[in-house]
Amino acid sequence: MALPTMTAEQRSEALAKAAAVRKARSELIEQIRKGSVSLSQVLERADNEDLVKKTKVAAVIKALPGIGPVKAAKLMDEAEIPADRRIGGLGSRQRAALLEAISN
């Protein structure tokens, strides 16, 4: 399927929207990194906010204080969450397993 042709104005608007979303997502990750937003708060926000819903689980876990890439991968494996899963795609069992794994 071919991509639709866009006018220069439409392309400019799309680029601006994408940049705004990336900025908002990086601000969310930074809040998690600083500890001002917890994992449980992120999971609650996912029910109402598309930005949070579309954020990758791995990025959120890696941003948690004291958790690096190796530990994040181990936690996701224990909770049976695929590496490319997004927050909005987590089921209630996966959310509970993730919160349990983080609290230990």
Automatic annotation (TrEMBL):
GO MF terms, alphabetically ordered: nucleic acid binding
A Pfam family recorded for this sequence: H2TH_5
Taxonomic superkingdom: Bacteria
Signal peptide: none
Domain Integration host factor-like helix-two turn-helix positions: 33-100
Protein name as catalogued: Integration host factor-like helix-two turn-helix domain-containing protein
Organism whose genome encodes this protein: Nocardia macrotermitis
